[in-house]
Amino acid sequence: MIAGAALAVWRAPGPKLRSAILHFAAGVIFSVVAVELLPDIVQHHAPYEVALGFGLGVATMLGLRYFTQRLEKKEELGDAGNEPAAGTRATALPGAASLPWGLLVAIGIDILIDGLLLGIGFAAGAKEGTLLAIALTIELLSLGLATAIELRQDGHGKGRAVAIVAGTSLMLLVGAGIGTTVLRGATGNMLEIVLSFGLAALLFLVTEELLTEAHEETETPLLTLAFFVGFLLFLILGMVA
Questions:
Q1: What rounded mean pLDDT belongs to the chain?
Q2: Fewest beta carbons within 10 Å, which of 33, 165, 197, 208?
Q3: Residue 112: φ, ψ to 5°
Q4: Membrane-spanning regions, if any (predicted)?
């Protein structure tokens, strides 16, 4: 994520390249879900636990989306109310720009969930956790790019934008720490609930976050291909690892 922010302030990628990264990340995460997590869940034949965990995952992600959208909307309304009157010029220096707290809180929550998912992946097995770590790394690269670009547009300096992204990225460590601590001794039915929760959260991440952002750019065959390249790459990696 820090590398993505540094890249954004050095030479921001074009919209097509960012869309390709988002497509690729979506394909990678979807591959990890389909190849690694889903077979483990189906193998244990615990439909009630799966339904409970999956339902909790969907409800949690929908609730977080509602909460973060409210924060972002409140931030936008606050910014609109603070705009200078017509005919006047803003005198604030770039380094003195106010922090977009709504955006940062939303991103922090997203990263915290990513950390929890990482803990869930390692609870399923070292192989699953490692593949998921690589997949989430690609997603966070894109998130770092987008966040730094947003901060730069708000008037923050290059160093400050990277520092803010670096501070926000610590939420991943918090989430992963919580995930591994809570899930360390999880077995049987409890593990099924947790894995199903992670399954729903990852599917939500792919369909409602990554691909939604990726499709903001005009779709082309090459951009669509990036999704399937990511899926195939991790399908093969999962088979030979």
A1: 81
A2: 208
A3: -60, -45
A4: 20-38, 50-68, 101-124, 131-149, 161-183, 190-207, 222-240
